[in-house]
Task: structure prediction
Amino acid sequence: EVTKDLADWQKQGEYPETEDDFLAVVKSRKFFDMDAINEMRRNVRQPVLPSGKDDLSRKYSGLVKIFQLPVIGEKYLVATDPSDGKEDPHGIIVLDKGGNQVAESHGKTPADLCAQIHHDLIILYNNALNTFELNARAGGIFLEKLELLETPNQAKSITIKGGDLKVDDKNHGWWTSGQLLDKLLWNLEEGVRLRQLNICSKDCLDEMANFIVPEGGQPQKVKGGHDDYIDALSRVWFLKRFLKTGVKSMMSFSYKET
Result:
């Protein structure tokens, strides 16, 4: 059976069972450039097997996947979509400054444990510049844990007000309004389409391949699917624009709808 190894959300996107499901698929389009997604599939990698202090995969029972160990002097970026560990998984993506994925974490964990994983990845990857989604109760717990851990190099908060992207020098975490989410997603779509990223995680690419734009609607996951990888990836890719100048010099700039 073709669908036996597919998750329910993949079946919905690729092999709809009901007429309503079929019509929903027909009246939608893929959000990401599928030629770019398929090109990245050719570079899918298996996690490496670190040892000692670098072995976060073993420490967190497989929740962390390391695709490339950190290089001395290299700059990295990390972003997290926290969860409460009940319904949705968390998503963490680590990129190098060239847009290459080097690590990830994904799974259903309480927000405080997710924050500890985030922190450990920051430390492993040379005190990487980092951020996270602040929305909901999970975001608040996540922030409190990072403050307790004294996680270094956290990016400042950003918001969109009156069409402008504003930086809040006093706070951390990104509270995601509809406007900011739209900006993050379309910025990621452009980066994928222009081949500016290299994602090597099969699970992340599968999620991206099933992210759709319904007729007359907004970009979204398919019925029964998840968007945790995409949320984390959209944040870490947007964060990259602040890497050269450094977090302390992040300035406001005009935001225009694309």
